[in-house]
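cron nightly-structures :: item 1 of 1
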Amino acid sequence: MSTQVKITRVTTATVRDMKKKAEKLTMLTAYDYPTAAAMDEAGIDVILVGDSLGMVVLGYDSTLPVTMEDMIHHTKAVTRAAKRAMVIGDMPFMSYQASVEEAVRNAGRFMQEAGAHGVKLEGGREVAEVTRRIAQAGIPVMAHIGLTPQSVHQLGGYKVQGKDHPSAARLLEDAKILEEAGAFSVVLECVPAALAQTITASLSISTIGIGGGVHCDGQVLVVHDMLGLFERFTPKFVKKYATLNAQIKEAVTQYIEEVKKGTFPGPEHSF
């Protein structure tokens, strides 16, 4: 007689409870079925299908060329794999900026077509109404402030945000506005650790840091960065837990050599 272990899905309620219990939340990006399946089995809490796929998977120089069709396609693959983790779809550039109605419609596509459990969108007070309307439609919203890659040209590059008092005060106020608008969590990217700590203490919703220091309620990294797969550049906030790019090159080099020498396939690989 087989026994099945019941898997409890991570939800917005789980995330709220983790904040209350001071239990750290873990999040990583994924863009395909096997990676998401491995993460889910390892026990990751949240999987973000990030628009970072534009750079680490599709080879673009920024996240700006990523489309809704790209995001839906990759989110479908991830949701097929994730049995426990909450899956968040990252709303790409110009999928929520043109109008509130279009934003709600595109957020709905992540849920209806791709099977996501929520969406993430970048921006502060300027996206408060969009956040409110998406949340009112029954779609969980993860906010994202600080360094917002979709606004990289407006920000003047990939720079730490909130370093002076006026910009720090604005980020704190933005976080509170987004919480009031209905966001269930907020990503704090590339902000001073002390500011992230202040924001975290000021909110009842969870903060998720990426270059925001240790005092955030959770942490997120791009999986290709932390596994050493993406080598064009490595942000300061990344810790490499593996060097898979080097391992892939080594394995492929060995394969080429064995095929050229005629030592692969061997008898054990033949019929």
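cron nightly-structures :: done
Residues 256 and 262 are 10 Å apart (CA to CA).
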